[in-house]
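Feature request disguised as a bug report, sorry. It would help if multi-protein outputs had a clear separator. Right now it looks like this:
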Amino acid sequence: MFRFFATVLALTLELAATSSSRANDTAAETALGGLALKQSDSISMDSEDLYISPERVRVKYRFTNITDEVVETVVAFPLPDIPPYSEENKTYWANPVDLKFRTTIDRKPVSFDIVQQAIFKGKDVTARLQTLKVRLNYRDPAF
C-alpha cells in the first residue's frame, strides 16, 4: 500500500539579527526526491511550542538569525501519513486546502507550499504516479 504524506513548508518563521548561543538547527530544502533536512550554521531555533489535541495541532517556532547577513530558508513541518480510506477516517486529509493551516512571520500572514509524496517500499514514486496521471490524494482536485 502506498504511504502518502504531506509536508508543509515555510512555517512560523521569525528571523532577527540577534545573537544566540545555539547554532546548527535544522532547516529544509527541496531536493531531488523531495524534501531534505539540512543543518544551518546561520539560524538557531530558540523555542518550539507544540500543542496537540484530537481537534487541533498548534506549533509556534521562534528562530533567530545568528549572523549579520540576511538569511532565507525553508522551514518544514512534516505531517502524518494519510491512512488507508475507511469510514472512520474519511474526513482525515480529505483535501489539503481544508487544513486551515496558517503561517506567519512577525505575526504577518505568509503563503506556504504543500508538498505531497507517494512512497512505496521506501522509494519515492511520486513522479511515476504523476506521469501516469494518478492523483496522490484521491480527494484533492489539484491532482
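(second protein starts here, but nothing in the output says so)
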Amino acid sequence: MSLREYAHRVTNKSKNISHTILSNESVIDNENVILLDQLKQHLPNTNRASIAVGYFFISGFAEIMNSFSNIESSNNPNHVIRLLISPTTNKLTAEALLASNESLEYVQRKTSSSIKNGREIVIQQVRNSLGHMPQSQKDQEAVTKLINLVRKKKLQIRVYAKERLHAKAYIFELDNHQLPRMSIVGSSNLSISGIRENTELNLRTNVDNDSVKLLAWFDRHWEESEEFTEEMASIMDDSWVKSRMPQEVYQKAALHEHGTLDEIEVEESEHLKLFDFQKMAVKNALSKINEYGGVIVADVVGTGKSYIGSMLLKHLQEKNRSKPLIICPPHLIGMWKEYMREFGVNADVLSRHKIGMDDNLLKQYTNCDVVLVDESHNFRNKNNAYNALYSFMEQQPDDSCIIMLTATPISNGVDDLKNQLKLFPADTILNIPALGNMNLDEYFKGAEQQHHLTPEGEEKIRELLRHVLIRRTRKHIQDNYAKKDGDRYYLESESERKYFPKRRLDNPQEYDIDMVYQNAFERIQEYVASLKLARYTPGKYIREEYQDTTHPQYKKYNELATSMNSLTGIVRTTLLKRMESSIAAFYSSVKNFAKGSDKFLDYLKDCLVPIGKDYQDSIYKSIMSDVDIDYEL
C-alpha cells in the first residue's frame, strides 16, 4: 500500500468518525440537539426507565406517551418506568434565603415546613397541571395512558420529601447488548418547556460505568421516598378526563361552591360576636385563601370588614400560622391594635407610609407569613410602598397568604385590581381556573382593547373576581341575612341586635353652604384660586432659550410644561375637598403643603429644582416624617 493510499484511508475514516460524533451529539441544549428527540429515540428500546425530576407536568408526559412500547408489551415485572418527583417551589429556596442574610435556623424552619407538607404540595402540583391543560383529545389520551400504565403496574411513582430534589436524570436500561445502559443528566424537567422549548444544558453518557453509578444514586433516593403511584392515578381518574353524567357535574359544582364552607368552624371572640353574614364571609375567605393564597374582602362601607379581617387572623394564627402582619393607614394603627387585643391575636401593625419611606423595614418581618392590608386600594399604584410590599411578598414561602380589605377595589381602572392581585403569592394565585395557562398581565391584557375593557373582557374580570373577591351590598345582606320586626329589618348576633336604618325623605334638609361657612366660602375659594402653586408648575419658568423649538432639549422641557398643567387644578380641588371634610383635615393639609414648600425652597437655595420621582419622594418623606408618630401616640 502506498503512502498516498494509506493517507486517503485515514482521512476517510476520520470523516466517518466525525460524522458519527456529530449525529450522536452528547450535549443536549434544545437548540442544536432536542431532548424530546433523544427521548423518543431511546425509550422504544428501553426495558426500564428511571427518571428523577423536580417538576413533572402531564403535558410533558404527553409528548413521549407513545414511546414506551417495549415496556408496555413486556411481561417482565422489572420492565417498568420509575418516576421520582419532588415537592418544589420556584419562590423559596434555602439559597435565596441565605443570600438575604436570613438566619440558618429561620431557613431550616421555612424549608422544613414545606418538606413536611411534601405530599400535599405534589398533589396540588398534579391538580394544577391537570387544571391548566387545554383538555384536548391528545391530552385526554395522555392522562388515560398514564392511568393505564399505573393499573398495569408499568409506571411507578414516588415522592422524595426528605429534602428538595433538584437533580434531573433520565437513566435507560436498554435492550441492547452493545449498549446496555445510557443516561442523560442536566437541567431539563419533564415538561414541554424542559424537553423541547427552554434553553437547557444536559449531557448524555453512553459509558456504562457512569450509568451504573447514576442507577445506584437513583436507587438510594428511591428507597428513601414515599409511594405515590395509586394516589397519582386516583387524582387523574377523578379529573376532567373521566366521563360524567350531567347530574354528577351539577353536584360537583354545588359541592365545590358551598360544601367546604360548612366544614369551617369560626370561633368567635369572647367579647365580640359576629353576625351571620360576617361569619359566612370568614368561611368564604378561608376557602379562597386555602385555594388561591389570598382574598379581597370588599363589602360596602360600614359592614364590619375589620371584624372579618380580625377573625381571619385569629383563625389562621390558631391553625399554626406564624405571627400576622397588619399594614394600614397611620390613623388606623390604634384601632387595629385594639382589635388584636379584643380578638386575642398576637400581630405586628405597621403604617403604610413607613413602608414607603424605608425600603428595608419589611425585612424585619420575614417571619410573618400572614399579611393583612387594610384599605388595600392604596396599593393600586406602583409607588414606593407598593414596591416594598411586592418585594416582601415575593420572598415569602408558598404557604403564605394575604388578606385585603377595601370597599373600593377598583377606582380608576382594572389595573387597580391587577396590581392588588399581584401581591398574592405568585404560585397559588395561578390555581385560579379562569387564568388557564396565563399570568395576570396576559389575562388582563386579553380583556382590553386600546386600554378599555371589552364586553367579553368585563365577563373575564367578573369570572376572575368570583374566585378571589367577597362583595356584599347592604341590600344583599338585608335580603339574605336579616330578620323582620314589623316593617323593620334587623341582624342578630349572640350579644346584640342591629336594625337597618329606615330612610325617610319627608322633610329633606337643604345644604346651605353660606350658612355652614358663615358666608366665607367664596372668600376662601378666592384665596385658593389666587395661589400661584409655582412648585407644581415649573414648566412656566423655563428659560427662554429652552423654549426655542430648535433647541436639542426643547422636547423634554416642553413635555414638562404640558404634563403639569392639570396639577394646579388637582391641588386646589384637594384643598377644597379637605376643607369640606373638616377644619382639622383642611388645617393638616395646609400645614403639609407648607412643609413641602419649605423643603422645595431648601433645594432652590442649593441651586436645585426638585423635579422627578426621587426629589418628590424626598419632599414627601420630609412631610410625613412626623405624621406617623403623631398618629401612633
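Even a blank line would do. Unrelated, but nice: The chain has a mean pLDDT of 79.
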